[in-house]
Every structure is written in structure tokens, then in C-alpha cells.
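User: For a benchmark we're assembling, each entry needs the component sequences followed by a predicted structure for the full assembly. Here are entry 17's components. Please fill in the structure.
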Amino acid sequence: MSKATARGGVPRRPGDEDDICPVCKSSRYLNPNMRFLVNPECYHKMCESCVDRIFSQGPAPCPVAGCNRTLRKQRFRKQTFEDIQVEREVDIRKRVAKVFNRRQDEFETLDDYNDYLEEVETLTFNLLNGVDVSATESKLTEYATQNASIISRNATLEHQESANLEARQAAEREEARLRREAARKEEEDEKKAREEGRKEVLEQLVHGNKPAADVVKESKRVELLKRRRAQQSRALPALPSGTPSANSNPFTFKGLKSTAAPTPEKPYDPFGGLTDERSYYTLQDYYEHPWLDRARTDTHITAGGYTVTEYCARAMFEAFSGLGVFVGEEVAGRGDLPGGNGAGDAVAAAEAAARAEKGVS
Amino acid sequence: MIALPGPPTVQLSNEYIGTLDAGGHCVLEMPSGTGKTVSLLSLIVAYQQYYPEHRKLIYCSRTMSEIEKALAELKSLMKYRADQLGRDEDFRGLGLTSRKNLCLHPSVKREKSGNVVDARCRSLTAGFMKEKKERGEDVELCIYHDNLDLLEPHNLIPPGVWTLDGMLRYGEQQKQCPYFTARRMMPFCNVIIYSYHYLLDPKIAERVSKELSKDCIVVFDEAHNIDNVCIESLSIDLTEDSLRKATRGANNLERKVTEMKSTDAKKLQNEYEKLVAGLREADKGRQEDAFMANPALPDDLLKEAVPGNIRRAEHFIAFLKRFVEYLKVQATHALRPLLSPSDSIQTRMKVLHVISETPPSFLQHLKDLTFIEKKPLRFCAERLTSLVRTLELTSIEDYQSLQEVATFATLVATYEQGFLLILEPYESETATVPNPVLHFTCLDAAIAIKPVFDRFSSVIITSGTISPLEMYPKMLGFATVVQESYTMTLARRSFLPMIVTRGSDQVAISSGFQIRNEPSVVRNYGNLVMEFSKLTPDGIVVFFPSYLYMESIISMWQGMGILDEVWKYKLILVETPDSQETSLALETYRTACCNGRGAVLLCVARGKVSEGIDFDHHYGRSVICIGVPFQYTESRILKARLEFLRENYRIRENDFLSFDAMRHAAQCLGRVLRGKDDYGIMVLADRRFQKKRTQLPKWIQQALLDSDTNLSTDMAVASAKKFLRTMAQPFHARDQEGISTWSLADLERHKEKIEEEKIRELQEARRNGARGGAVRDEFEDYEMEAVMMEIDT
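Assistant: Structure for entry 17:
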């Protein structure tokens, strides 16, 4: 009897009856909390206590006869699938999928993509069934090294997509919750309003001196009108959100959005698109100038890290920096400010620059 | 004299022909038992024969008996037409039902289960079996099916209307298979009568109804439940047991594939090459296969090639296995909390560990765990069909579960919205032994029926009780051209609807949750039944909201001695969930009504009795509806659906529940009145009916006088007695003439009157037009008037 009640709540599942650890032969009857673990090395099933007993002292060979693989305790884990073959298949797939993560938009035609899929599937099957394992493994590693960048890129894309999806789902859930709340509130309000209306009628009947029938009629009329208004207001917003066409579409729309996302972001530009590109001159490596030679060779000068190229670049930059700035226009824009000085400066700078250019080259 | 069904029908015909000409869908409510079927049929047939295109009529009904009835009506109609016209028209009308009902093969027809019949039939008729035979192998074939090939393919059966029985008889005579005769003759028929499922269930519709042309006229009769039919046709339940069977099926399939590889690798290779080319190519010659089709797969997908990773048979089987294993993992998820010994409060767990998930999140989890992508999942059902065909499997019933899983896979990957996965640890509410069930429920009735509305230009949805009419277009997502509820014209007041809100002791009666088990309420209900069993001649039908409530109330009545009292006047019979027991009870009930004092049948408002069974004439003189038949609101599936309706169609929970309860109540009431010479009493016994009476069908509302509402039991009894006395007066058929049945002269008079009316209206309109802007104001006044009228009542 006690056994029956103890088992009453626990569902009988296939394989429950022969829940016996193949290693220590203890059964679920003796140990109701028995858990089975497997090691992805050989997928032999054993109970938790066996794992503790055998592998606590470090790596040891699998206790199942004829297996002889060395297992580590760390890698033991709970079996996810009932079918151990599927468990193994999924592990292999995890490995394969990490490497072969091409996406459909990378292929020119659908047929190419399908061929690729089949190729991958065949590779997986080879690994699964032990056909040409070494050749397949080498193919796998070869592919992985060759396409490392693409693989990592696709992996991040995938990650992003799943994150997006999760965020969207969370947002949808939240929205649904809000809507639910709103609907409940609306209902409550309505109930409250009705209640109040009734109370008011009673009040009027008690204190007022109108005939009772009139009061009741009046209140009913008000209520009907109110209800009608409420219905209208409810019917109006139904159009944008509730139309079936809007309903069937968002799926494609969403799909578009998530595929458009993965354009890689540009590095941050602190100058907002301003560059110091030289458009009026080209900086040369070597400028002939007698007193520059001294600066190049004198250790007193170079020891501190002074370089002539730096000086030249700065000189050139300063010489040309005013070009392309049309002070006249800016002044016209400013309007009231006196512009004579600025204009004179610009001209002088240009002349100086021209001279410098001539002199240097 | 032409026995025309009467004024509403004439009105109907005017509006209806308009719909047919213009194209468009309509919702019509016509009182039950007033010749709805025959008037629709005669109208459409006349229309069909008048125009040269001969648009085909597809008439869908719900049950076998209704199909049969419609066929009989059609037959007599055609006979009448032939008599009147003096010639036989070139006309074919056929009914289609399952193989189980139409099989003639001596051993197959003895099978009890429909699935077995289908599977065995397929093994005897499939195309590859015939090829085998031609190759000289020793295989058994169905002679009835083979004989069909000897006939002209467009003339398998002579013109005329064939009832199901007639088909069977003809088939036996000519040694030809009635089922395949009907299937193959469908393109050549003028009228096809079959069950909803042939059009709504995507698995079957794809196969049976694909070739029907666009201009067909589609009629859904008895369609008050059509939204539920739509939903059911796309919902799938998977239990652990069926998942186990699916695994077994996959293993079998694997073995078959390896076998075939060693013996006939060429065939697999051929299939593979076809699949590389695309699904459509692989699709040829599957017209008569019994195995499933793709559920509502979009057309663009069919043109696409099958994804590469399930092209090869062995890859696909591994794929299926992985998917089934994943589902098993899901199923154990629901159980996990139960397995931990620390939890002991069972009821709490029951509430806690129901998991509901949307398809996208399911797919995401699936991908994370088993690396199954969405796309191959979508092709699952189609791929399985193709594989089964290639392997030439004959024992299909072994793969039923696998097929279910594959259909599930396709659906879950195809639809993001309108579906929900609900995982419950218990199969039913009362179960104590956990058995996880994965419900994949469709929440949107519009999905299944959408292809029908898209394809056919005129769809008519009709029933005796489909009020409120505007609910249906909303739920099914279509626009109507005509939406009309017709009232009944009767020569006498032949039915008496009443609303009883109080017992004789003035205590309000209701099946509301708080007071339903109070002794006073139960006693008052008991008294009501007792009083009516005293005064009603012949049969009484009593409807309860649920089996559970019925059981509890019956046991309480037993304790109060009410049943003993009823027993003095009538036999008491009870409907049970078991259909065989129920049919036995019905049989006894009929016998008791035919000879004796009659009987009381206690049944449930959503059970079998309330749906398909008529209590005409003395089989039902009163019907009592005890309590408002609300649905069980704690069900997860219902909750999900309510939420969906609110979010997407702006139908509020309470509105829908009340609508649903009232359509079932109306359906129950409609059971007793099945014709113009029939009479009966309809009692709605609940306080809450008082407010809901506006939701009843128009024809009942019209007959429901104000003085018959808000009654107590004794007043109701007095009123019923008076009614029965008037009904006892002699009533001749000719009293009805000119009122509820019209002769040709009456019709002509009506036509004149209508025309006069029209002229008057036009003149009025012209006068109004002269006045210009005044029209708008008048409309407002009218609105106000309506409001005031409501108040006065």
C-alpha cells in the first residue's frame, strides 16, 4: 500500500521499471532519488553515486566492460534525451554546427544552399556512423581554419539574432500583459460605474420627489447612452490593430528587420567626419634645406626625440591651413562685422604658403 | 399547388440571388425545421440550371444523418423539377463520406475503425500495388476499385441524384467502388454534399477539394459551430503514448529504408532526384493516396525545393527522430516538478506547471537544443508523404502518430501567430495519474477557413441559430454582403418560449457557481422538472450545462425524492459521455415516447444529443434548459483563445463566453421544433437568461412575449397548460395556406406588394432627396427612438 502511494505521484515512464544502474546494480526501489549521468566520451549510463565513487580520485577507465575509455568526472552530465543515440547525435551536431554555420544569403542560388546543407548532413552522418571518421575530421578542421573569420562573423550574427528575438519576445509579453491589465481595468471601471449609477438612482428615489418610474427611465437612458458611447470608443481603435491583414503580415516584416540589422558598425569618429587630409600638397619624406641637415644629425637635437619630418609636416600644414576657407563668404554671412582685416590675413597667408611651397620644392 | 415554404423564404430568395450574381459571402439565420435545406437547395439548383455556366454547388453539412437528409431532399427536389418541367435535366448530385461508410469490399467493410478501413483500402487500391500486379507479383487488389478503370472516367455513374444508400446499392450491382466513384466524379457533378471537414481540414481539403473551380457556390449548413470545427481541424494533441508510437514508426521507417537500399536503391535515388527538382514534381500522382497531405502549406513553399538536409531518406529519418526526442524532453519538462519528492501539494503543482509557449519561442528552444532549423521543419509533412509513397508502405496505421508529429512540425513552423503550445501534465481535469499532453491549439478560426473564402466567390454560412450574426464575420475574418436573420411566419403560435427565473418559493434559480449546489436552487430545479413532467404529453428533454453538474444534481434530486415523483409520470433516461450508452438511452426514449406516458431525457448542452439529434413531434414536447451552458472557463485552451480574441478581434472575454453559451442554449431549444406542424414548449431556467434574451435568435425572440419572461415556476406551469390547451385544438393543413405556406397566387400577390412597396420607397426617397440635408437628422432621431424603445421594454 505504502509503495503504491509513494509511487502514486510519480509518473510511470518507459524504462522506469528497469531503472537499475548498470554499474552498481542498485535500483530505483532502493534509491528513489537516483539520477543517471552520462559522459560524452562513451555515453555509458551510470548513477550519480557510481560516478562519485569511481571518478572522484581523478580520471579513470569506464567501468563498463570492453569500453576502456578514460573518463573524467567533470564531463559527466545529465542525459537530456531518452534515446542515447540522439544524445550523441546532438553532441556531434553541436560541433559540426559550430563550424558549418553558413547562411542562406551567402549563396547565389537556393540550389547551392541546399547542396551545401546536404553536404554538411552527410559529414555529420559520417561522424555519427563512424564512416571515414579521420577524413571527415580533417575536413572539418581544414574548413574551420580556412574560414575562421566567416565562421566567427556568422556566429556573432546568429547570437545577435537570437538576442533580438528574445528581446522582441520579452517586449511582446510585456505588451500583452499591459493590454490584459488595461482590459481588466476597463471592465472594473465599467462595473464600478454601473454600481454607482444604481446607487444614484436609489438615492434619487429616496430623496427626490420625481415619480419613481421617471427616475428609473432616466437612469436607464443614461446608462444605455453611456454603453453605446463605450462601444463606439471600443470599436474605433479596433481598426488599426485588429485587422486580419495586419495580422498576417508582421511575420514577414519582422523577418526583414532582423536580416537588415547585421551591417557592421563603423568605428567611432571623434571629429565627426573632419579629416586632416592634405588636398593642396603632398608631404615628402625628405626636404632639402641646409639648416635642417644639422637638425637631422645633431645628437643634441635628436636625442630628445625631435624629428625633422614632424617639423616639416607642421610647417606645411600651417602654410596651407588657410586655403579653402573663403573668408569673404563667411564675412558676407556674418554681415555687420568689419571684414577687411581677415581678408588681408587670408591673402597674406596664401601668398606665404605659395612662397613656402616654391622654396621647399 | 406548389408548397412554397413561406414568406421568409421568398424574402431570402430575393436577397440571395443578388449575392450569387454579385459574388460575396453571406451569413443567414433561418429558423430550424422550416425547410431551410430544401429552400436553399431549390434556389441554388434553379439558379444553376437557369444560367448556362452551371456553377457547381458544394453543400457542406455536419453529420452523416444531415448529409443523408440533404441528399434525400435534393432527390425529391429533382423529381419535382422533372415533373414540372416535363423532362429530366442533365444533373448529377453526389454525396461523399468516409470509406468506412462507403466500402463494399467484403472483408474491409467489416472493420470497425475508420483508420483501419482507410489503411486497408489503400493497401488494396494504391497505384504501386497495381504496378506490382502488372509485373506479375501476387498481390491482392480490390476488385471494386479496379472495375472503375474499365469505365469511362467521366461517366462512372449515370446522371441523377444518388443518396449514399443508392450509391451503395448501385456499387453492389455494378461491382464498382462507391467511394472512388464519388471521388472521381466530383469534377463532373452539379451538386456535391459532404461534411465540413472535406473543405476545412487542410489535410483532407488539399486532396479532395483541390480541383473544385473558383466559381463554386459553397454552403455551410448547421454552421453555428463552424469556428470550433475550424479550430479543431488545425489543432493537434500529442501524448507520451503517441510520441512513443511515433518513435516506433520512425524506427520502422528506418528499417524499411535500409531494406530498400539493399533491394531497390534505384527508387530511393529517383525520389531523391525528384526532391532536388522541387516538391511539385514529386507531387504527381498522389491524388488518391490516403496518407496525409500538407496542412495549409503556402503555395510558394510548394514550388520551392526541399531543404538539402532532409533530402536523403536516412537524413530525414534522423531528423524526425531528433524532433520526436525533443518533444519527449518537453513532455518530461511538465513532469519534472512532480518528480521532486519535496513538493507534496498536488493541486498546487497542477496549476503551476502548465507550460504555454508561442511557436517562435518553441522554435528557438528547439534550435538551441537539437539544431533543427525552421525551414526543414516546414517541409516535414510533405517530405514524409513523399517518403511513404516511395517506400510503398501498405500498413499505414503504424505511421499515424508519426504523421501527426510531422503535421505538428509543419504547422508550428508555418504559423507564428494564432497558435499556442500548451503543455499540461494531466490529460484531463479529473485525472490523478499524470500523463503529459502537448496541445498545439489553433486560436484563430480564420486560418482554416481563409482558403475557402479566398478561393470561392460565394460562401453561405447558415444555421437555425447563429445569433448574433456579426460575431461570425468577426471571428472568421471575412466580409459579408448579406447578413440576415429571418423570422418565422406561423399560422398559430406553435412554440412557447419562457424564461423562468424563480422557483415557486420566489428564490432565484441559477446555475451560477456560487449558488448552484444550494439545496433551495436544486429543489426548485427539481420542482420545475417535476411539474413539467406532470403536464407535458410524451417526451421532455432537459439540458444541463455539464456532465459534472448533471451528476451532482441528479444525486441530490434522488436524496430529495424528486426523481421518485417524476418517476410516477415519466421514464427517466440519462445521457453519458459514452456514445453507445447514449444511443441506447435514446432508443429507449423513443420507444417510451411512441408507446406509453413518455420519458424525460436528461442530457448535456454540449453533448451529442444537443448537436445532431432531433426531437420532432412527440419525441419532444418540452425542452428545459437548466442553467446557462457556459464553457468550462478554467481550461487553458479556452483562456488562451479568449485572450487571442480580445487582442486580435477586440471581442471581450465575457461577450464571447455569453455568446457561446447562448448559441448552445438556442441550439438546445431548437431541438424540439422541427417543422411547421410541430409544437413545443421551451423553458430557459436561469435568472441570468433574463438579461441575455437579446442574444437569442430572432425567431425565438419574436415569439418570446414579455409576459413570458421573469416567471416563477407556478406561473410558467399555468402558461404552459394554457398553451397546450390551444395546441390541442384541431389544426388543418389548409389553415396554413396563405400564411406560412404559399401557393403561386399568394406568391404573385406578394410580388406585387413588394413592387408597390418599392415604388413607394423610391418616391419617398425622391421627396427626401428634395429636402436634402434633413435625412441625416432623421437618422439620429431614429437612433434615439431605438434607445427609448429599449427603455420602455
